Amino acid sequence: MSRIALVVDDSRTMRQMVAFTLTNAGFTVIEAEDGKDAVRKVEAGTKLDIVVTDLNMPEMDGITLIKELRRLTAYKFTPILMLTTESAQEKKKEGKEAGATGWIVKPFNPDVLLKTIAKVLPA
Amino acid sequence: MSNEFAQFQDAFFEEAAEHLAVIEEGLLQLEQHPEDLDLLNKIFRSAHSIKGASGMFGFNAVAQFTHKMETLLDLLRNGQAAVSSTIADLLLKSTDCLKTLIDAAKSGTPVDNETVQRLTVELAAASAGNVPAARHASESAKVAPAVPTGKAQSYAINWTPPEWLFQRGLDPLQVIKELGDLGTLSQVAVDVSRLPDLAEIDPERCYLSWSMRLKTGKDRQVVEAVFDFVREDSVLTIEECETLSVKREGLESGNEIRFTNDERPSESGAAKPLGEILVESGVVSRAALDEALAQQKRVGEILIEQHAASPQQVEQALQKQRQQEATSQSKKADTASIRVDTAKIDKLINLVGELVITQSMLSDLGTRFEMSQIHVLLERMAQLERNTREIQERVMSIRMLPIGTAFSRFPRLVRDLSAKAGKKIQLILSGEETELDKTVIESIGDPLTHLVRNSADHGLETPEVRLDDNKPEVGTIRLNAFHEGGNICITVEDDGRGLDREKILAKAAKQGLIAENEKLSDDQIWSMIFKPGFSTADKITDISGRGVGMDVVKRNIENLSGTISIKTEKGKGTRFTLKLPLTLAIIEGMMVRVGRETYIVPLLSILESLQPRPESVKTVIGKGELINVRNTYLPIVRLYEVFSLQPEHTDPTKGILLILETEGERVVVMVDEILGQQQVVIKSMEQNFRKVEGIAGATILGDGTVGFILDVRGLMEIACREAPLVA
Fold it and tell me: B488-535, pLDDT tens digit by residue?
């Protein structure tokens, strides 16, 4: 059974790249273009194995999304990785406090992405 | 950077064009509406998206230039810089430049470097002075110096993850598995000592710590990187122990350090094993100890070999062990057994004798019982009740020990501390004979030690300073214990410099515990020192000042259902008062009835009961209902309102009013009827349900129903909320 990943990024290119990498690695990918879209897409309690989200997004930003997901019983312990830039230390801290499991620093290559996911995804 | 994403380049250029359009349009609108934050956010996000994605394709010129734009935009949206036409102009020009850069990246043609340079400088200048310093603190600063690579290195890893690990979706096993992928893991041990009792376990918290050995050819950074997501919040030590085998050879060839004492774990439990003492005093972690034990060598030697403890430290611990053996007062020994005065046991045996007689009289009566003998039966039953009660009291008293057992360690401690800190300190103990529950005594030792250490280190000044301040050269630390109501109070007092209000405030503000100009009461300020990681000590000494401890002290006291308060005066000294319940299990209670429910009021808190005259009850607007008791107005709490019951009486002059007191404050509680006095066994509600305001616990009544024990403090808070207390 393939694992399910939720990829949230308002930048279409970024989202597609992450989704592409994950799909190639055998994941089923749900794409969302911002936090609100993401919440709407998993509202029904869709099973998720991992969430990869950008932080800077319109409508609902990544930090709020992380908080929203953690509030839901289904995603209380789901690994959530945030996409950050090297300079956004504050954001990273905020994300951690909101409940993010870890982070991936942009720019990254597919290898780093998959390795980081493996780091937090239970075997 | 990498070509793996090359197929997405077209998508990127397409999207970048869209973002550029958004930025351009946004900037034009911004000139009209410089205050529009939504607009600024939108522009920022677009720039941010371009920056993020361009980096992915290795378009560094684009990424760097966008970063400069983003920095300025960030300042604008945070209000640190104002939108002026000059800035809007600059940003528009930069957008044009960015467009050129992106086009150049697309076609692979060179760019007009001069324009880029000029705009970069201008953007930087516009952001200059506004950019918060050290904002780009690099992670790499925290990385420890590299270890020579190439050969297999052995690391001793001790890891205590933060308790909320799971709540961030982290799995400790995942981390350990990842370590295993780096090399060979051995001696993986889990420390369960922080696990609370089953009833108190929160399954969403991680109470475990791990220790392990990792043999790997990888760099230290690689090992550390495994902990990337948890490192900042964990207690983590990674020590190289390659040198271990060499050292051990040295020892075997005759350099062995011998100890006169046998420090192997004592099976009799008469004294604590050395390792325990070292762990307790914080010299080594428990994991390091477990590992040492696993090697089946003497703990002391191994710890020294591993540089976990110096020979002096081990020697000190050994001395401590000898002391404990001599006095037989170690905690471990206490948990296994208890020393009881033989007089207490004799009395108990007498009482059991009486109980046996009463029982045989009753069974005798039972075999030939007639209704006419009912008064004899009642008499015998009363006797049985007396016997039972007395035995209960005597058995409880066995658990009561004089607090002197907990105080006895301090004379030595203070002596050592004064020598170490170069201060003259005298210790005055009083109230050592005060008795309290054994479990409380056992748990109070460590918090008290911490407070005494704090007084010696922070509180008391050096002799020179004291003389300058016209104080006696010798500082005094006073430990006192006494009963007060149903509680025992223990005070730790020094005549030192007192807490420094300004220093605490400054530190609290620095740590972000309070806002810069927040107005706080003295008590609120003092309570800051109980926050985790808080220390105002200018320099850290090995006595105290690491900012670990006061929070633990507070937690320990609260675990015993106690409170800790501070009284301090600058230049005069500080007094910590610990207030603890005498025993944790049984209280004397007064049963009261409200409607059809029975509640228990702790007897010690009842001052008096009365039925008021109508004229003494007043309703004050905004302050609720008050009653005049000998010219003092006290707020009335109608119990039926608090617990939403159907009462028999709603008129205070018809019901019964109980005047309750706790911590010097009073409240009047209205009930329907007083039923009588009874000893009750407290059953915690929090353990099985949750904290209910105004209820301290539950108990099982004589008829088998459940009765709630009132929490007078909680009721007082309810009263204060509804009607501020009249002084």
Answer: 889 999 998 888 888 888 888 887 777 767 777 888 888 888 877 776
Domains of chain A as residue ranges with CATH: 4-120 (3.40.50.2300)
CB burial of residue B101 (10 Å; 0-12, 13-18, 19+): buried
Find the closest chain B residue to A85 by CA distance: B52
Q: Identify residues of A whose CB sits under 8 angstroms from chain B CBs.
A: 10-14, 16-17, 20-21, 54, 56-58, 70, 76-80, 83, 85-87, 89-90, 96, 99-103, 106-111, 119-123
Assess contact for B43 and B26: CB atoms under 8 A.
Answer: yes
CB contacts < 8 A, A to B, total 109
Distance separating alpha carbons of residues A7 and A37, to the nearest angstrom: 11
Q: Determine the pLDDT at residue B39.
A: 86
Beta bridge partners of B184: B215
Query: Which of A58, A83, A96 lies closest to B168 in CB terms?
Result: A96
The proportion of chain A whose per-residue pLDDT surpasses 70, expressed as a percent, equals 97
Question: Nearest to residue B161, comparing CAs of B209, B213, B195?
Answer: B209
Evaluate whether B98 touches B49 at the Cβ level (below 8 Å). no
Q: Using CB atoms, pick whichever of A12, A101, A106 lies closest to residue B55.
A: A106
pTM, whole model, 2 decimals?
0.42
Torsion angle of C-alpha atoms B641, B643, B645, B651, degrees rounded to 10:
-30
Give yes or no for a contact between B439 and B584, defined as CB atoms under 8 angstroms apart.
yes
A107 interaction partners in chain B (CB closer than 8 Å): 1, 52, 55-58, 63
Beta strands in B49-182 (DSSP E): 153-160
Give dist(CA A21, CA A23) in Å, integer: 6
Residue A86 corresponds to which tokens in the numbers above? 């090297």
Of A90, A107, A119, the CB nearest to B55: A107
Superfamily of structural domain B6-127? HPT domain (1.20.120.160)
Return d(Cα B525, Cα B367) in angstroms, integer.
71
The listed range with the strongest mean pLDDT (B197-201, B560-564, B620-624) is: B197-201
CA-based nearest residue in chain A for residue B2: A109
Q: What six digits make up the tokens of B686?
A: 């929090």
Residue ranges of chain B whose CB lies within 8 Å of a chain A CB: 1-2, 4-5, 8, 11-12, 15, 41-42, 44-45, 48-49, 51-53, 55-58, 63, 67, 135-138, 166-171, 173-174, 177-178, 204, 226, 228-229, 233
Domain at B586-722: CATH architecture: Roll (2.30)
Domain B149-242 fold: Alpha-Beta Plaits (3.30.70)
Contact B569, B561 (CB under 8 A): no
Question: What ipTM does the predicted assembly reach?
Answer: 0.84
**Which residues in chain A touch residue B106, judged by CB atoms under 8 angstroms apart?**
none
For residue range B33-52, what is the model confidence (pLDDT) as tens digits? Answer: 777 888 888 888 898 888 88
Contact B416, B376 (CB under 8 A): no
Higher pLDDT, B604 or B332: B604
Region B446-471 average pLDDT: 88
**Kindly report the CA angle at B373 between B369 and B379, in degrees rounded to 5?**
110
B49 to A99: CB separation less than 8 angstroms, yes or no: no
Cβ pair B668, B636 in contact under 8 A = yes
Domain B404-581: state its class.
Answer: alpha beta
- Residues in B closer than 8 angstroms to A81, CB to CB, are none
Q: B326 or B551: whose pLDDT is higher?
A: B551
- The Cα–Cα gap between B541 and B161 comes to 26
Which residue of chain A is at minimal alpha-carbon distance from B176?
A119
Structure tokens at B350: 């007498």
- Nearest-CA residue of chain A relative to B57? A107
- Among A13, A70, A107, the residue with its CB nearest the CB of B11 is A13
List of chain B residues whose C-beta atoms are within 8 Å of the C-beta of residue A21 = 4
